[in-house]
Design brief:
Blueprint: H1 2-8, E1 15-19, E2 27-32, E3 35-41, H2 49-66, H3 84-89, H4 93-110, H5 116-119, H6 124-132, H7 134-146, H8 168-183, H9 190-197
Parallel strand pairs: 1-3
Antiparallel strand pairs: 2-3
Length: about 210
């Protein structure tokens, strides 16, 4: 937690719980009226220190982004007064992709020594499927954004094509954000750019339009 707070340059406010997941969840940052409860499943799937580092960085990325007034300025009220219902109503497809893409890329940059498949909560063969079928994932996400906009459906296995693992939208969104930030001619490291991008409204992520 201290490492992440140092990178963001601020203290993160909320409660963190280490819980047995019984295979039902990996991590979850629950927002309500300016407060976060971060749940970490310490037994999912085969939790070790690398897994917990990646999971913690991912969930704390959500906490940091959700606490940025700029992200929710369009709601017209202080972030502390945004209820959970209002928060969920404002979670558009673009916001979901931005939030999960930022969190997935953030954990990879904070802990580059940890294998990419762990940052995506995959087995090695699932990660390799994504690497081998990037265009399938890209096409499926773009089709969803153009039509039903139900990007949450990519939590399901097989959504990006036969044999695809769950959460392929995390993989895709992280790649899209990395491409956008890398292309910007700003004299900052990729991690520094990523920290700044946590304060952007979803509409600034060109790759999701």
């Amino acid at each position: 937690v201290e490492k992440v707070e140092t990178i963001f340059g601020t203290s993160l406010h909320g409660d963190l719980y280490l819980l047995p997941s019984l295979g039902d969840f990996d991590g979850f940052a629950r927002y309500d009226s300016g407060h976060h409860s971060v749940l970490l499943g310490v037994d999912f799937p085969d939790a070790d220190l690398d897994y917990l580092k990646a999971l913690t960085a991912h969930e704390l990325s959500h906490v940091y982004r959700d606490q940025q007034p700029e992200v929710w300025a369009h709601l017209g009220k202080p972030i502390a007064k945004v209820s959970r219902a209002e928060y969920l109503d404002a979670a558009t497809a673009e916001e979901h992709l931005a939030s999960e893409g930022l969190a997935t890329l953030f954990s990879q940059l904070v802990y580059p020594e940890i294998s990419p498949h762990i940052h995506h909560y995959y087995e090695r063969e699932e990660w390799q499927w994504c690497e081998d079928h990037h265009e399938h994932i890209h096409s499926a996400l773009w089709e969803s954004l153009r039509r039903d906009r139900r990007v949450w459906s990519f939590y399901s296995e097989g959504r990006a094509g036969p044999g695809s693992p769950s959460r392929t939208h995390y993989y895709w969104a992280a790649k899209q954000i990395e491409e956008q930030l890398t292309s910007e001619s700003v004299p900052l490291s990729l991690l520094e750019k990523l920290v700044k991008a946590h304060t952007w409204q979803a509409t600034r992520f060109e790759k999701f339009k």
